[in-house]
Structures are given as structure tokens and as C-alpha cells.
């Protein structure tokens, strides 16, 4: 008997973890399900050594998994055996974490384990989506096609993230430049200018005194130390709060309610939900199990709580569209298209088209949001710089008035 660590979700959507004793990973999964949990990851407890080994290496990116699946599929298509593919991949893979994982898979498969069983032991490297689909591919004899679908899925996920990151880059750069410029003016230029005016004499105008007060704060070591401590404490507190179930739910709910941002997040979740579910169903995964996997992939507490009710409704004989519509999370187009797909018997292909549509919608929406942010940032920058310039000019006028009198 071996000791297995599990991460699972309860019926209320809470994340739990623990240990079970079992002869193999399949029995461990069965034990977790017997406790009324939905297992998200189950792997053998091999001690702290292996955990540390994977933590010190680089994180495995979705792009790396996409390349891995594409190479694996190409070699299988060329007639190379699974063990032969693993042997080649462990020597060709650039990412050190993924390379170590491929070596572990090679050793385990050589000892008689299936590929999916070995991948379950490396749940920190291979996502639940990938493990579940590989398991179905091995059972159905369609591993080659499954790996191709996974590579397409990961490629599209990477493209969406890349487009969003690229779109947000320009406003972020403008914001950083503005912050540096304003800080430089307040800390270095304003104090010298004001001291020059003070040497002539006279009372400083209110705007100048405000800027001088802010400048004094930024040059005060005690204030800077206190400010840094407040920032560190705020970040630590936020991360602690976010790690709780209530914190995750509160933050996800808040994001949904934010103007413009909430709509885009809803579209991103709709795209991720439909594409992942489509990929799983095309690979032969049952609907209930597919929804459990999707729950972990979407990683949103509002969706997780809603999917628990959806799964219960399906187990009682309902279709997918009706309980999804009751959730009220995804746009109506998603549930309507799912209803059409269920009636036509083409749910997987319909959801793939819906995912493509929302990928384009996300790109368009983010571009519009960035287009709105650019002039807004410039306007804010102009107001701040203008206030500083006015605060510097007013003492000059006061000085000339004093000379005139």
C-alpha cells in the first residue's frame, strides 16, 4: 500500500486536501470519491525530495505543453512507440522541469505503468485536462488524435493570453513613464525651484505648498519606510485573503461587477469553458467527468459553485443547457448554442465554434478597452503635470508682484 496526496472539491465548491492509503492511483481516486469529493489531483506521496526538485526549476508554461503535445503527436503519427517518444522527448525538451518530468514518465512507463497513471503522479506539471484526455486516449486507442487536440487547445489558450498581454502593454508602459516623470519632478525639481523662490522672500501660494508637502513626504526616510511596510502588509493580507474560499469568491464576484472588465472576464470564461468542454467531449470523456475537469481549468469560484448545481441537475436527467442558463454566468448565446448542439447531436463541434467566436470577441473588447485607456491616461498625466507647472509658476508671479509693489 502506498500513500497518496489528493486535492479535491466538496459539493459546496470548497477545496480540500488530504492523504489516503491505496494500492494504486485508481484506488486512491475511488477512495476520494467515496468521501463525497470531486478529485482534482491525486499523486503518490514520494517525500519532500521530488517536491523540491520541481520547485527550483522553471514553471511549465502552456506554450511548452503545446509544443510537447505537438512533438508527441508527430512522432506517434510517424510510427514511433510511446516509450520511444518519451525517450526522444526527455533529451530534446528545453524546459528543465518538463525534461525531468519526461524522464520520470519514461522510467514509470518502462516499469509497466500507463502514461496517464504516470502523469497523475506529476500533477504539478501536467494539468488535469491533459491527464484526463490522455487516459481516455489510451483506453480508446486514440492517443495520437488526443495529443493533437491538446496541442490545438494549448496553442489557442496561448494566443488569447498573448493578445491580451500585448494589448495591455502600451498603457502599462505609459503609466510607468508617467509615474517616474512625476516622481522625478516632485522629488528633485520642485524643491530646488521653491528654495530659489524662498530666498527672494514672499508667501508661497496654496498649490505650491501642496506640492512642497508631497515632495517632503517623498524625501522623508521614515515616511518611505512606513509606506513600504504598509504596501508589504497590504500585499501579504491580500494574498492571505485570496487563498481562502470566501476570499476567492469575493474577488471573483467583485471582478464580475466591475464596469467593462466584468464583461470581458465573462467572455474569457465562456471561451475557456466551451473550448475545454469541446476538446474533452471530442476525446470521448463523459459529460459529468468533463465538467469536473472544466471546473479545475476555469478556476473561478462563481463558475465552480454553479457547475456543482449543473452536475447535480444532469445526474437527475436534465440536459446541459437548462441548468447552465439558470447559473446566469455565461452570455445567453452560450446556453442557446449549447441547446442547439444538444438537439442536433453535435455539442462538441458547436462549442468549438462558440469558443472561436468568444476568442475574437475578447480580442476586440480588449482592444477597445485599451483604446479608451490611452487618452484617459494622457489626460490624467496632463492634469498632474499641469498642476505641478502651475504650482511652480505661481511663486514667480507672486515674486514679480512683490517687486512691483
Strand elements, count: 3
CATH class of the largest domain: Mainly Alpha
Strand content: 5-15%
Tell me the distance between the termini.
Answer: 97 Å
CATH superfamily of the largest domain: Type II secretion system (T2SS), domain F
Radius of gyration: 28 Å
> What is the count of helical runs?
17
Structural class: mainly alpha
Q: List segments where confidence is low: pLDDT < 50 over at least 5 consecutive residues.
A: 48-57
| Biggest pleated-sheet summary | 3 strands, antiparallel
What is the overall shape?
elongated
Which percent range fits the helix content?
over 70%
CATH overall fold name of the largest domain: Receptor-associated Protein
| Overall average residue pLDDT | 82
Across the major sheet, the strand order is 2-1-3
- The CATH architecture term of the largest domain is Up-down Bundle
Order of helices and strands: EEHEHHHHHHHHHHHHHHHH
Q: Work out the count of structural domains.
A: 2
Organism: Ruminiclostridium papyrosolvens C7
Protein name: Secretion system protein
Keywords: Cell inner membrane, Cell membrane, Membrane, Transmembrane, Transmembrane helix, Transport
Membrane topology: Multi-pass membrane protein
Task: Write structural notes for this entry.
The protein is mainly alpha-helical. It has 2 domains: 1-45, Ubiquitin-like (UB roll), CATH 3.10.20; 152-405, Type II secretion system (T2SS), domain F (Receptor-associated Protein, Up-down Bundle), CATH 1.20.81. The chain contains 17 helices and 3 strands. It has helices at 25-34, 48-55, 62-77, 82-92, 96-110, 115-120, 128-140, 143-200, 206-218, 221-243, 245-257, 261-282, 287-298, 301-315, 321-327, 332-344, 347-404; strands at 2-9, 15-22, 38-44. Strands 2-1-3 form a 3-stranded antiparallel β-sheet. Helix 8 (143-200) packs across helix 9. The chain is elongated, with a radius of gyration of 28 Å. The N and C termini lie far apart (97 Å). The relative contact order is 0.09.
Amino acid at each position: 500500500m502506498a500513500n497518496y496526496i489528493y486535492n479535491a472539491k466538496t459539493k459546496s465548491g470548497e477545496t480540500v486536501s488530504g492523504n489516503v492509503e491505496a494500492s494504486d492511483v485508481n484506488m486512491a481516486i475511488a477512495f476520494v470519491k467515496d468521501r463525497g469529493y470531486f478529485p482534482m489531483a491525486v499523486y503518490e506521496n514520494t517525500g519532500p525530495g521530488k517536491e523540491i526538485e520541481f520547485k527550483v526549476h522553471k514553471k511549465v508554461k502552456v506554450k511548452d505543453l503545446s509544443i510537447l503535445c505537438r512533438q508527441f503527436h508527430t512522432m506517434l503519427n510517424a510510427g514511433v512507440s510511446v516509450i520511444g517518444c518519451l525517450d526522444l522527448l526527455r533529451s530534446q525538451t528545453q524546459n528543465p522541469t518538463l525534461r525531468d518530468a519526461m524522464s520520470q514518465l519514461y522510467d514509470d512507463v518502462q516499469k509497466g505503468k500507463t502514461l496517464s497513471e504516470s502523469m497523475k503522479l506529476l500533477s504539478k506539471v501536467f494539468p488535469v485536462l491533459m491527464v484526463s484526455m490522455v487516459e481516455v486516449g489510451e483506453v480508446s486507442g486514440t492517443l495520437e488524435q488526443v495529443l493533437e487536440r491538446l496541442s490545438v487547445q494549448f496553442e489557442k489558450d496561448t494566443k488569447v493570453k498573448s493578445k491580451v498581454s500585448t494589448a495591455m502593454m502600451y498603457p502599462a508602459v505609459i503609466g510607468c513613464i508617467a509615474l517616474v516623470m512625476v516622481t522625478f519632478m516632485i522629488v528633485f525639481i520642485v524643491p530646488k525651484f521653491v528654495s530659489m523662490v524662498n530666498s527672494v522672500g514672499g508667501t508661497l501660494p496654496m498649490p505650491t505648498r501642496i506640492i512642497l508637502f508631497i515632495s517632503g513626504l517623498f524625501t522623508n526616510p521614515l515616511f518611505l519606510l512606513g509606506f513600504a511596510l504598509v504596501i508589504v502588509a497590504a500585499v501579504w493580507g491580500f494574498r492571505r485573503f485570496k487563498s481562502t474560499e470566501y476570499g476567492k469568491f469575493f474577488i471573483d464576484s467583485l471582478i464580475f461587477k466591475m464596469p467593462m472588465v466584468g464583461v470581458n472576464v465573462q467572455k474569457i470564461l465562456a471561451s475557456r469553458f466551451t473550448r475545454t468542454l469541446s476538446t474533452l467531449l471530442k476525446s470521448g470523456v463523459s459529460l459529468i467527468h468533463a465538467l469536473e475537469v472544466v471546473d479545475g481549468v476555469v478556476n473561478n469560484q462563481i463558475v465552480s459553485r454553479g457547475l456543482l448545481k449543473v452536475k447535480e441537475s444532469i445526474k437527475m436527467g436534465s440536459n446541459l443547457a437548462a441548468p447552465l442558463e439558470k447559473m446566469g454566468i455565461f452570455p445567453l448565446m452560450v446556453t442557446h448554442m449549447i441547446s442547439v448542439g444538444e438537439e442536433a447531436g453535435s455539442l462538441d463541434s458547436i462549442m468549438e465554434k462558440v469558443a472561436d467566436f468568444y476568442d475574437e470577441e475578447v480580442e476586440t473588447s480588449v482592444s477597445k478597452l485599451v483604446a479608451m485607456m490611452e487618452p484617459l491616461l494622457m489626460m490624467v498625466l496632463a492634469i498632474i503635470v499641469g498642476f505641478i507647472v502651475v504650482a511652480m509658476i505661481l511663486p514667480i508671479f507672486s515674486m514679480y508682484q512683490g517687486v512691483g509693489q
